[in-house]
Structures are given as C-alpha cells and as structure tokens.
Write a structure and sequence with these properties.
Elements lengths: L4 H7 L10 H14 L12 H8 L3 H13 L3 E2 L7 E2 L25 H8 L25 H13 L12 H15 L8 E4 L2 H12 L5 E5 L4 H9 L3 E5 L1 E2 L2 E2 L10 E4 L13 H11 L5 E5 L24 E6 H4 L7 E4 L5 H10 L6 H12 L2 H28 L3 E4 L6 E6 L5 H11 L4 E2 L12 E5 L5 H14 L1
Parallel strand pairs: 4-5, 4-8, 8-9, 9-10
Antiparallel strand pairs: 1-2, 3-11, 6-7, 10-11, 12-13, 13-15, 14-15
Helix pairs in contact: 2-4, 3-4, 5-9, 6-13, 7-13, 8-9, 8-12, 14-16
The site of pyridoxal-5'-phosphate has 13 residues, from helix 8.
Amino acid sequence: MPVSDTTISALIELKRTDGEGLVAQLTSQLRGLIATGRLGKGRVLPSSRRLASDLGVSRNTVTYAFEQLAAEGYVAASRGRRPVVMIDGHERSERGAVAAGECVGKLQLSPWATKLQQADWPMSYRGELKPLRPGLGDFREFPNEVWARCLRRSAVHAGRRELGPVNRLRLREALTHYLATNRDVRATAEQIMILPSAQAALTLIAATLIAPGDHVWVEDPGYPGAAAAFHASGARLTGIRLDEQGMQQMPGLGAPRLIFMTPSHQHPTGRLMSLARRTEFLAASRPGRTWIVEDDYDGEFHYDSRPVPALQGLDAHGRVFYVGTFSKAMRSDIRLGYLVAPAALVSTLEIAQQHMGLIAASHIQEALAEFIADGHFLAHLRRMRRLYHARRDHLVEELQRHLGGMLLVEVPPGGIQLVARLERGRTDRAAVKRLVEAGVETRALSSLALGKPRDHGLLLGFAAWRENEISAAVRTMASCF
Ligand SMILES: Cc1ncc(COP(=O)(O)O)c(C=O)c1O
C-alpha cells in the first residue's frame, strides 16, 4: 500500500550501533520501499532537510543516500528539487527482500538440471567425517609444507609468466611423462586437459559427445558420479553386470555410443579388469561407433603386484578417454583432475572446456608441475602405497576376526576402499543407518546399483584411516551387528 510523506520516516529504522553505516542503512531501506512498490513510480520523496530532521541524522547522510539511489536508477534527483521515484516496484513482502528459496513465477528447469535432481549424486554424507568413510586418501599424511613451498614459488613467479593458455604446458608435460612411465598412457602433452576434477572431465565428455537417447553403458554397481553426468545429458543408461574379470562385454546389446569403466580398480568392488576383457572392449570400439571412458581414479595404489597398465595405452584407434584425479593421490580438496583426450577431439574439447569454465587456477597448475617434476608426487605416492597397503590388510584382518561369520570381504588388489558383502537376506541401508548412528560411516552397496540392487554390502574406506581407527570402527560394527 502506498505510504504518505509523514509515514516514510516512521518506516525507516536506523541503528546507530550497527556495523553498517547510516548512509548504507538508509539507502537500503529506501531501496526496499521502492522495490516493493510502497513508494510508487512518480512519488516525490521528502526533501533531504525534512527527512534528516525526521530521522535525527545529518542532512549529508540523506543527501548521500539519495545520490546513491539516483546512481542506481531508483530515483531522479536534481539540485534544488526533491527526488522522484523512477521505477515501478511490486508489492511483495514487508521487508522488500525476496524470501530465501522463493521466486516469482514457475520454476522451469532445463532437462539437464531436472535429470541431475533425479540422480543419487553427489553422495550425501551427513555430519562430520567419520571412519570408515570410503573414497578418501589420508589428507593428514599429505606433505603440506612441501606443497606450500611449491604454491608460494608459483605465486611469486606469476609476474614472470605469460597469461594463458588455460592448460599449462609445464603441467601437461610433467603429467605426460608421469603417465607414460607409471601408467603406460600414450599421449602427447597437447592431449592433456587440466580440469578441476575427474567429475569435470565426465561432464565435459558428456556435453561434447552425448545426444539425448544415446546408449551409454556403465558398470553395475558403479560410480554414481559418472551415471549422473551421462544421465543428465540425456543418455539411456544400461548397467552392465560384473564378473570376476570386471565389466562384461555384451555383444547382444549392440554398439553403445560410450562405455564408462574403472578397469584398474572397479568402483566399488576394486576388481581388476583382465587383459582379455580389455582387449575385447577395445576390439568392440574399433569400428568407430563406441567411445570408451577409462576412469583411473585410484590406479596409483596397487598393492599385490605391479600396477596394471592403463587401457588407454593399448588403444591404437584413438577411441579411449583416460580420466584421472589428484583428489585421491593428493588431497580430496585439491580440486585438480585431468583428461587425456583422443587427439581428434582435443580442439573441440578445449572450446567446450572454456565455455563451461572448467579451468584450474594457473598458479596451482604451475605448483603441481613443480611438485611432480621435483619428485615430491612420486615420493608421496610411494609412502602412501606402503601405508594404504598395510591399512587394507589391517581392515581385512579385523573384519575377518570380528565379523567373519557375517560379512564376506572381497579383498581388492589395490585402491582405497573395499566391499564387504552381507549375508543373503540382510539389507544394507538399514545397517548403514545403524552404523552411522554408532559412529561408523559406510556406503550401502545397493545404493551404487543402477537398477534393482542384486547385492547388499558395505563399502568401507581404509586408506584415510589409521590402524587404531580401523580397529575401533570394526569393534563398533561388531557390536551393532
Ligand atoms: C570412480 C571415481 N571417479 C571419480 C571420482 C571423483 O574424482 P573427483 O573428486 O576428481 O571428481 C571418484 C571419487 O570418489 C570416484 O570414486
């Protein structure tokens, strides 16, 4: 409802103790009255002298507020004249602000955002981090001092560096060398794109290659971040069952547009895809209709034999994307991942990368290049490999000792987590709920199934947890079961 001249000052409440100055308070409250239509278009405001005297503030305070509102286009003010309201506000709320979560009109989300909301990702863990949350390396063991020195040097030298390109050459070269010698990835530096995460790589691939209705195969159970990225882009997902050799080839299903897989340590089971199976998938991609996305999120951590070379290195036809992340090998909050793209797609992906703004800060890229080139990355990996190996064995022993009759542990040859299956007839979601209340965090295996879950079990992280934490968590689990 419009307000009279005399009530304008009554509607304004200035707090002298407020950290916000009087001018800012007055400007914001007048702006609110205009935006809500209580001071309508064409309304002449009181003179600065009158409003100042009604409010008990200096005339300058009111003049500065009027000037600010004039600069923002809310009022027209000229010397010697009282300001006039210039916009048509809307009668909405008394405070003039739109309440959180509200907006005018109907929310019409894009198909992409609608599908994102249907996906069970990002995973929701409630509350603080607890043992044995899966998916993490031990950030407490990360050499923060060394990393800080690399960051500092990179920031100090920023002045001497040229701006751009978005994918820093030094890091691309350091990664090319690291991936060739340690993971048998075959690529030139130009094929490497530096991204804020592995998830960014999946989103980029989906946006670049997937049209609504395209068939995409994912492992079942599998990594929900990948399923979400492809589902949101309109793909029709098929969950492919696993056997002892990992994801199975399904010639009867025709040729999909894309296959997503985690051959080094299948997520979540940790199974290693056999060479025979890798060769079959590569052969299936050869006619040129199917792309393969190899997600090597924790391939650095292999304990029982030499790490198995990446599938990408066996591909002679440019059909494999190799995705990696530093969120397991370094810290989960480092927010750096990468994509080794087939050469034919590099320029398209680089354009898409910039459109989507999936760019990692260049001083962090430079710092990481130094961290790798100076040997700190490999030294950290060597140390973590020993530590995580011992923790995996410790968790397996503890589970067998305390819960051997109830859980069937699948010992992965590497990685950062393992699956312990529940006896037939027991459901995992209720167990996960009970455990989290008791202080042990796990993920239900059934929640990682694409369709109707076939198996129930617990996904347990071991890499991030010290042996005494693992022992305590397993004792708690035993008391809950
Ligand atoms: C299979 C798999 N791929 C990718 C990622 C995510 O990596 P980033 O944090 O770099 O997106 C995870 C994280 O848990 C994962 O389990």
